[in-house]
Amino acid sequence: MQARILAAVLAALAAGTASAATDTTTFNVKIVITSSCDIHTVAATDVDFGNQPSTSTNIDNQGALNLSCTPGTAYTVALDNGQNGTDVNSRKMANGANLVPYQLYRAAARGAGDVWGSTIGAGGNVLAGSGTGSTVSIPVYGRVPSANFPAGSYNDVITATVTY
């Protein structure tokens, strides 16, 4: 009887210590993140000079572009000449044949070196920056040197382009 008990105990131990076979493999988890910039999801704020008497000079106001770029992505933002300008130094708002000159700037000082245009490279007049991953409000500073023009409602349309 003891032999049977001993045989049963040994059989149980042998069954419990038997190992299962295993095999392993590895695999990669991947993603490719590409840079992107979005300048139109959040609408731009107009540069609105409001109602002004014809005697006003150096009328300043500002609008804003809203830009979201991938973190660390270098970008430039260019502004075109508008619908009535032949270059960035001749931007004009129109009311029929009447034209009111104005200028757009990258800095609140509104100096000659702050004119915002579309020239890239040496002597360029675009705005440069680096993405943060969040939407950033970029001010667009405007100035009308003189309102000494026929009364009326004047308008121009500027196209902003982000390059990244």
UniProtKB/TrEMBL annotation:
Q: Which residues form a coiled coil?
A: none
Q: Which domain of life is it from?
A: Bacteria
* Keyword terms: Signal
This protein is called what?
Spore coat U domain-containing protein
Q: Which organism is it from?
A: Dokdonella ginsengisoli
> Signal peptide location in the record?
1-20
Q: Where is the Spore coat protein U/FanG domain?
A: 24-161
